[in-house]
Batch of 2 targets.
Target 1
Amino acid sequence: MKVIKQLPPVSFIFLIRSEEEYENANSCIEKNELSKVEIVPIYTEENLSFFENNLYIDSESISGIELSKRQVFIQQKLNIFSFGNLIVLPDGKIYANLNDPSIGTVNDTPHSVVYHELTEGKSWLKIRNQEPCSNCVYQWLCPSPSNYEAVIGKPNLCFMKNTSI
Ligand code: SF4
């Protein structure tokens, strides 16, 4: 850690699978006085309870959401996590999101790849317009569907009940 801290500014990404790993990451951050830090929860198929206890939306997290009209409008139109992303894999295929089908290859023009995603793609414009969110009063307040929903296999990560419009 001493050597790393002598290098030009370094960012640290802590991948965590449990509360214990979260605590360990926090103590490492405090002990080493790290500043550029990101903590990223990882779903392993065996730690659903970690997600349910810490990342699922509940009434407390809903009440903490503060959005401008502009942010609400953005969430009504596009996916805040995927929009604009283009990922190129070593085999030449291009993806807007690695959980969705490829939208072209490096042999296609950038224009055709972007056009494909905007007209037929499943990522950039993926919004909360599916049930149960489409019938919920918080539809446009909750963040766009994320990769966590995709890998967990649910349309939402939510404990909210009786939220029908
Ligand atoms: S049902 Fe969907 S829109 Fe409603 S609170 Fe849950 S995640 Fe948000």
Target 2
Amino acid sequence: MLNVQTVPPAKDILTPEFLQNPHRVCAELREETAIHRINFNGPRWALVRYAECFKFLRDPRLSSAGRMRLLLSRLPPETRSSFAELERALEMWMLFLDAPEHTRLRKLLNKGFSPAVAEALRAQVEALVDGMLDAEVPAGAKRIDILRDIAYPLPVRVIAQMLGVPASRHQEFVNWTNAIALFVGSPTTNEVAGAAQEAVLALTDFFCEIVADRRRHKGNDLISILIDIEEDGHVLTEEELYAQCVMLLFAGHETTRNLIGNGMYTLLKNPEEMANLRRNPEIVRMAVEELLRYESPLQFVTRVVKDELEIEGVRIQAGDSVLLFLRAANRDPRKFEHPDRLNLKRLKNDHLAFGAGAHFCIGNQLARIEGQVAILKLLQRFPAMRLASESPEWVPNFALRGLRSLVVEV
Ligand code: HEM
């Protein structure tokens, strides 16, 4: 039996100030203790140090299933049933499953995301970025918005290309994934859940048509690969296939956009390091790892406790939820020397920006390539680039940290 204890009152740390500058709050929490009680759609436990995040991301007693139900549980019971379709669709996402269902889907999807597949996409990503810089940035432009011109369209076009769907619909994709992101990362309301449900259903219909067409005309895109895949006698069901396509579009877009936006913002705020990268483009891989650590696109991931357990002497009940603050872990001085200093040549950079354990980001190689290509090309194309405003606005989303726009003078 674990010791009985009183649960501390939950702190309100997720405020508008936190959106502007999460680092100060994270540092204070990290110094105080490894585990806290905070409010986010109700009271939750929060882990803020590297060692505990690293350990519990791998602990099967913390479940990835049931996270969606948790978000919806904050809605009044009389309206919850209106979101049954949203719940059902998201609960099929591999991201929200545990072993053995997760393991089966992950094995199938891994085939489409090997490092070799991602690396083969590098030339296509380079061509896409060149094309966007030529088409979207008129010659002689004095200002560009890095978010609008590159960071928003690039990840959608890349994943659309991988799935073999027309990029002409990318603005619709962006709107749909934004609606899902708001549901995942902000306080749940009927309105937010309604918009997310509409988006998920629209995307599912869209992929339903694409899959039917692809069955007739297979190519070498990811959907054709997934249709063909057969491993250990298991295949994806039709519904699972649509759900994973929607998940990939969402997961590949919202995060990578913020890698490019947050990364460029960080470089512009650190001109010496930016100049260092411009002079030494061969360090771009290390540089992107450091940008992922320093200004991580995903603030936290959530887990639901399956069996009662103890973390740092605190008893956590089954059914409780835990937020693992990747961002706070990535600036933990117990793990990283001078964590608040941007060092593009940092060695041993074992950051947790892509998570860890069974759900470690399947798209990490692809995201890294998109980040490396976009950031380097922007630096090369605009050698005199500087921020048009010292304090751009952050999107009001507590889980996904990103800028609304990033206007620069070129
Ligand atoms: C910089 C960009 C990215 C970041 C920071 C990021 C971060 C993460 C993190 C932290 C997780 C673990 C979630 C958890 O443990 O609950 C994750 C999972 C996942 N990511 Fe990414 N991601 C990025 C880009 C991408 C891309 C480009 C794709 C696909 C095209 C993608 C697809 C996924 C999927 C499918 C999962 C679920 C994996 C599983 O459940 O086994 N991500 N990502």
